[in-house]
């Protein structure tokens, strides 16, 4: 009898007697099932993620009364504030992504968890600094039209910048303006003086008060040094004695 192996298709020869039990052909080998793949670890949070462009904010109260120098300073401070807010938003996103990774590693390798925790702490510190810069920029923008030197307001209000940031990281501009108003009431000499209004078109600008010219006659005069009669001529010496009623015995 000739059999075919089901797995290989090769011919299998069996020589049996009619009264013996038939010999079964060998069974084909069953391939082992592959082990399930281990899921990949969560990817590192992207640090170079570009934050969304912040919406343009309106100018603070009194900005229309600023001169050219004040307007330039305001635009510069607004740009600094926008950049600081973008940096703070990016740091917050990185911190949130890394916090998820820390949770994923809690039941895994402890060494990897410690590295992720250390990185999260660095990002938290970075986010705090970026938020502080954003608060500083917000204070400057509101103070530039009210204070002669906006840095005076920054020095006072930045003693506790955390009071101006809520749990979601948003800056409370109403509280900043309220504290600036209260600061001016306590220190009115810090207030900004209004810029002089320009002359109407076609009219000359008002003349500035002239400074008085110095009087040469009122200046310091050169003093004549006293005469030394030990070396003075005889006639000058006799004349000086005559003023006091004396006359030398020798001529």
UniProtKB/TrEMBL annotation:
Compositionally biased intervals (Basic and acidic residues): 16-30, 62-84, 183-196
Acidic residues composition-biased segments: 41-61
Region (Disordered): 1-88, 179-251
The protein's name: Uncharacterized protein
């Amino acid at each position: 009898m000739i059999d075919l192996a089901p797995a290989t298709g090769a011919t299998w020869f069996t020589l049996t007697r009619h009264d013996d039990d038939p010999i079964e052909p060998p069974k084909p080998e069953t391939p082992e099932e592959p082990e399930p793949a281990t899921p990949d670890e969560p990817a590192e949070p992207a640090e170079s993620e570009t934050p969304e462009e912040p919406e343009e904010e309106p100018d603070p109260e009194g900005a229309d009364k600023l001169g050219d120098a004040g307007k330039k300073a305001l635009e510069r401070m607004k740009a600094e504030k926008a950049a600081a807010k973008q940096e703070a938003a990016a740091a917050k996103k990185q911190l949130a992504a890394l916090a998820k990774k820390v949770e994923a590693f809690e039941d895994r390798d402890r060494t990897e968890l410690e590295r992720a925790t250390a990185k999260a702490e660095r990002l938290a510190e970075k986010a705090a600094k970026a938020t502080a810069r954003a608060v500083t920029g917000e204070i400057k923008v509101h103070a530039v039209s009210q204070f002669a030197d906006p840095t005076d307001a920054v020095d006072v209000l930045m003693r506790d910048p955390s009071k101006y940031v809520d749990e979601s990281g948003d800056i409370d501009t109403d509280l900043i303006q309220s504290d600036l108003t209260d600061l001016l009431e306590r220190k009115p000499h810090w207030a900004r003086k209004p810029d002089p209004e320009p002359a109407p078109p076609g009219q000359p600008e008002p003349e500035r008060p002239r400074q008085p010219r110095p009087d040469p006659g009122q200046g310091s005069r050169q003093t004549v040094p006293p005469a030394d009669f030990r070396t003075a001529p005889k006639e000058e010496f006799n004349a000086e004695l005559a003023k006091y009623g004396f006359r030398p015995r020798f001529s």
